[in-house]
Structure formats: structure tokens, C-alpha cells
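ZP: hey, is the adenosine-5'-diphosphate complex queued? I don't see it on the tracker
AM: it wasn't, my bad. submitting now with these inputs:
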Amino acid sequence: MDEAQVFSRTDSLASHYRSIGYLLIAGLLIFYLIFFLIMWHRVRLLSNKLKSPITGIATMLQDIGVGNWRPLRPDTQIIELERIIDDVQVMGERLESSLALLEQANQEAQEASRAKSQFISSMSHELRTPLNAIQGFAQLLQMNSTPAQRGGEQDYLEEILLASRHLNQLVGDILDWSSIQSERPRLDLHKVDAVALMQACAELVAPEIQTHGLTLELCLPPGPLWVRAEPRRLRQVLLNLLSNAIKYTPRGSVSLRCAQENGWVRMTVLDTGIGIADALQPMLFEPFQRLGQENTAIPGTGIGLSLCKEYASLMQGRMGFHSEAHAGSRFWIELPAWAPATDENPRAPISRATRVYHGERNAERRQLVVNALPGAALEQFDNGRHLLDALERQPADVLLLSAELEGLDGQELLREIHRRPQLAGMPVILFCPPDQAEALVGLGASALLALPVDPLELNRLVQELVREELTDVI
Ligand code: ADP
């Protein structure tokens, strides 16, 4: 075999093996392609199998979050997910039974509290009669005593009168307190001039201020500042603050201030007295807390400030203070300023910018709401689903809701609203028949309004909720 033949054989062998090599590479590529295709297909199948039960579990959790303790179970063949679903179901059932226990405990506590208030109230009434007799007879004896008898006996009579006045005050305060606790009275709010009322209170306490050797400073504006208040209760709050300022100020002054800001009127009583230590301040508005004054000669019941706070909140106001030990205190009550428009028209016009949605099937109530909210940008819906769509497009400033609606009823709609973070915080007024109020309390509405709807009450509530939202934003 010559050299040329050897080369040609070698070349043909080389090209043969190259072809085999190419075939192997092509085979390998095809193998991997098929392998990855199969893998991709399986992953897709698996993710589809996972997606629906996981979404189902999320929905179960959301349902439990809004109080549906026994949500529907999603189907799955994956054992691990099956176990998670079982756990979620058990969690819902446990929450349901804990809630039932909690409600029962709450009811028992309420009943116990009612019984306690009733006991306190009847005891106080029982105490009042003999106390009044003691006070009356002591006064009579004092009036009838001749100058010759004056001296030791007179001092005893003074003591009896002082002690019985103090006890009467204590019994009065306890009666007020227990009546607020048991029935939360509705206060009739009127237009009141805060400045004039403060002046009147200052005149009332002026002799006491003088007796204590203090000075009274009035820093009041020249004109009236109108607030929404119950005059008797507001006077009681101011007199209580003034009486505290006098009692706890051994020397110096007591001042009164009044100013309006951001729709609120603030009435302040300042003193240069003993002040309150930082550590004691958190207990200040707690009933029967005298913060270390119980063993002193300063008379008191420890109930005045907690009563003031209750009255402030019943008048839709708030109370606050600033105090430093040995440097004096500043207590204030803030009440909503009287809106000028409410003077002429008790149904105050709602700001045009206020978007109110109203879900309602009853034609009469729809008309009533139109009349109650003059000026508001009001949209009414009889179908809950349409209402939800509208809310998703643009949330309302206030939502008024009846329980009965087409599509989604009021309760379901509320649950849907709570599932949507963009609607969180939207004020909702739920109209409810009086017998269903308890059942509707846990649904998360901002306010429940008993049927038949009182248009004035509705107008006031809407104004209030809108104002709260605005002040929150500020
Ligand atoms: P009291 O009948 O004891 O005055 P209050 O509820 O009015 O009850 O006040 C509770 C406690 O708060 C008082 O006992 C006192 O310790 C403290 N306190 C209230 N007002 C003042 C004040 N102006 N200066 C200092 N301490 C005060």
C-alpha cells in the first residue's frame, strides 16, 4: 500500500468518526431538549396543582380574618397542603370557640358591672336621705344657737356640717358616675358661649379664691366663642377643674383661658400649684385615684376628673392636661366649635366635596337620606355589587349601608370592603333595626344608626365622621 492510499484511508476513517461525533452531539441535544420540555411541562402541571389550593388557603385565612370562622375548604391532592388546610380549619374553629367564650365572659362582666352600678346607685340613694337629715338638723341647730351657746358646740356643728357636705358631694359624684356607667346618657347639645360660661364660673369661685389667698386671672377673648355643649355638664366640668386648681394651689394664681383653633374651642384652667409628678400622671383620669392626696387634709373623692372626661366625651369633646411637680398644672377641655350654618338650618349643608355612597333598596329611606344630607355628592345604589364596583373605582368619604341589598347584602359587602386595603379606614354608617344592633356590632362599621333613621342624627354623624377624617389627615 502506497502512501497516498494510507492517507486516503485515514481521511475516510476520520470523516466517518466525525459524522459519528456529530450524530452523538445531535442526539445529546435532542435528548436535553426533550428532557427540558418534559420538565417544563411537569413544572407547569405542578404549579397549576399548587396555585388553586394556595389561593384557596389565602381565601380561607381572609374569611377567618373577617369573622367567617368556617370557610370553604379548597380541593387538593397534595398531602402537605391538605395538612395546612386542616390546620387553618382547626384555627378557625378554635377562634370561633374562643370568641364565644370571650363574648360570654364579656356578657358576664357587663352583667356584674350593671349589678355593681345598681348596688352603688341604690346604696347612694339610701345614704342620701339620712345625710340630708343630718345636714339639715345641723343647720337648724346652728341657726337656733344663741350667742351664749356659741363656742365649743358651734365648732362641733361646723365640723358636722363640713363632714356632711363632703359626704353629700361624695355620694353625688358616685351617683353621677354609676349612672354614666350603667346607661351612658345622651346629652342634649346646644349652642353655648364658652367665654360667658367661663366668666360665670369664675364669678362663682371668686369668693373661694379669695379665702385661699389666691389671685384669679381671666385671659378671655372679648367676644363670644360658641361651642356645642350641654351647658349644665360643661359648667360642672369647668367648676371641677377650678375647684381642683384652688384645692391644689397653696399660693399663687389660678387663670382661665379660652381660644378657638381648627374648629375646636379649648377652655383651659391653669394654676401655679403643687403639680403632678410624671410617674402619677398616667392614672390621672382613673376613677377613685387621688394620686397620693388620700392621706392629706385636702378633701376629695378622686372621681371628679374621670367624670369630667366622661362628660367631655359625651359632648363629643376631649380633655387634656400638662403638669409638672411643684410647678403647677394646666387642664383643658376641648369641644367642637358651633358651625355657623347650623344656626339657621339644623340639617347643616354637607360640603359639596363630600362623596357619600348610599346602599339602599327602600325608596322612602333613599328620599330621607337625600333630604338629610343637602349639598353632599350623594350616589345611591340598590345593588351591593354595583356599590362595591363604584367603591373600587373611587372610595367614598362616607358610606351609608342598609343590611338588605340586591346582589351582595350589607354584611357581605362590609366583609368585602374589609378585604380591600384601599377601602380601609373609610367611615361606614350601618342602618340597623334596633333588635339586630348587637349582631351587627362586630362587623366593623364606624357607627350603627337605628331604624327608623333620624335625619338630624344622620346629618350630625356624617359631619362628624368627615371632620374626624379631615383632622386625621391634618
Ligand atoms: P379629687 O376629688 O381627689 O380632687 P379628681 O378626680 O378631681 O379628684 O382629681 C384626681 C387627683 O388628681 C387629685 O386627687 C389630685 O391628686 C390630682 N389633681 C387634680 N387636679 C389637680 C391640680 N390642679 N393640681 C394638682 N393635682 C391635681
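AM: back. The radius of gyration is 37 Å.
ZP: great, adding it to the tracker
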